[in-house]
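Sample A.
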Amino acid sequence: MVVSGSNLGVLVLHGFTGSPASMRSLAEGFAGRGYTVEMPLLPGHGTDLADMIPTRWDDWYGEAHAAYHRLLDQCDAVAVVGLSMGGGLTLALAEEHPEIPAIGLVNPMCMPLTAELLEGIDALLEAGLESFESIGSDIAKPDTSELSYPGTPLEAAKSLSHGMETVEANLGKIVSPALVLTSLQDHVVPPESAATLLAGVSGPVRQILLEQSFHVATMDFDQELVETELFAHLAEHLGTNS
């Protein structure tokens, strides 16, 4: 999704094994407020699980980085908003680009997987498996799906964990004003992730707790709250088109 608007841009990033469907309402809301918006389909996503098996952190970050620079070619300033792995990619961009005027993070990843989980992944790989059960569509709202894959590619998950090692180690480089939206019940990202993020960044940070939603809060019962707060955060730090 690419929508041309003003000289202010917003990059919107979806999560691991998910698709832009999880962020579409939010992206359309930014576009409706006059921003130039890009919401890329990250490599290996949105097609078939087999397409994601060979992809790695460098592929996803490479596309996020390229999309950020595509927006910079059109805009004077670009904010970045991400969900889950998209939040981790947002953090990685903010670590590299201190000029980003604002970042928005919905249940972001910022820590590697635990040693226990990584050992389990290695055991499954040694047994000849390429994927395990899905982590997608963790949503409290009934009959709602983010159009995620029915499984999780194991080597890709290890690569994501490795990427998060670098993200966590460099949180102190982040000076962009950050809004962190955290679900009290999240079955994908552990609760200590938000605490690590809040303590680690150097710039101003504000957290909002989501009481009614699971991991994919952009499509859950707190969707309106998530969107309202992110719209206000970007209006304050990126600017408006009015």
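Sample B.
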Amino acid sequence: MTDYIPPALDWVREQVELYESSGGTEGTTLLDTGMPCIVVTHTGNKTGCIRKTPLMRVEVSGSYVLIGSMGGQPKNPVWVYNLRASSDVQIRDKTEVFDMRAREVTDGQERATLWAASVAAYPEYDNYQARTTRKIPVFIAEAR
């Protein structure tokens, strides 16, 4: 069995713990925003350990859009590198859990469509992009 490494930030770790321990009946919104979130389970690219990351819930036609915004910080969140190295993920959306495969969408109409859907779900993404010079990574998690 592969070890699980909890998120380093207290509030992120607490969010994942509440979401998971309740079976997806609690902790399903981001802090006090009321905005829905999911938990993405993935494999650490350096450790090979299980990692869990809460992200905003952006669902498009049965797939999930994963935005590597990190609040507009200069660097990508670590999970971006994990998904680039290993695309198999598990998505917990409240009480449902899906085995999925994530792929990065870098250019073109597909990325524009996914970005627009993400901003519609969580308008702060546009502000995050404005804060950074990096192009915020966009992934789509689709059924395996």
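B remarks: The chain has one domain: 10-143. Residues 108-121 form the longest helix (14 residues).
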